[in-house]
Specification:
With 232 residues, the chain is an alpha/beta fold. The protein has one domain: Rossmann fold, CATH 3.40.50.150. The chain is built from 9 helices and 7 strands, in the order αααβαβαββαβααββα. Strands 3-2-1-4-5-7-6 form a 7-stranded mixed beta sheet, with helices on both faces.
Length: 232
Amino acid sequence: MPMDRNDPAYRGQADYGLTMLRAYDHFVPKVGRVVWRCPGAPLLRNYREHIRSPHLDVGPGTGWFLERSGLPDGRKVTLLDPNSTVLAYAAAHVPRLSIDTVEADVLKPLPVAGPYASVALNLVLHCLPGPSSRKALAIEHLAAVLEPDGVLFGASVLGLDGPQTRVSRVVLRAFNRRGAFDNLHDSEAMLREILGASFERVELQIVGSVAIFAAFGPRPPHPNLREARTEE
């Protein structure tokens, strides 16, 4: 079911139609290098180091990182996104893997049980609507479907308190005005806090204006989250 236009998360995924997806792999890496000063190599390295099977990929984009992740052919992967166009496009571009698709919003209790050995949340958090407590809930939802020794990994563009340039501040504000991003107040400290609330150990490095992270040892779900999953 398509996301309701009044949903707080709607604007963060609304631009991802076929036109955007066809240009994505040409446009986004250039923005990463020039604006955020973060080339694709560190992000891909994070994928290749931490991906396992079965794997859950949240906000898979075009499937570019997943295809190059080094995951062996035929391994089980679930793609999760509220946008059905994204799911179909990414699945079609990773035919060598055993793909399931789930149309769902990571801010709500997830309709997947797992458990997964790894979860990717790559370039998604900066698109999710704030405040930080709402983004923390997304992390908690993902921790709840991981194996006890599972790993959550990904990257997110930092907000105005991050290591921004004059150009990146202009772009950052423009993306936030449009609603594609909601991250003006996202900081390294905030990311460490929301990841640490759901995981025992957090590794985080800053490349340009981007935080690249991996989190290990999922903590048990908060009681309120367990109740929400039970009532779903």
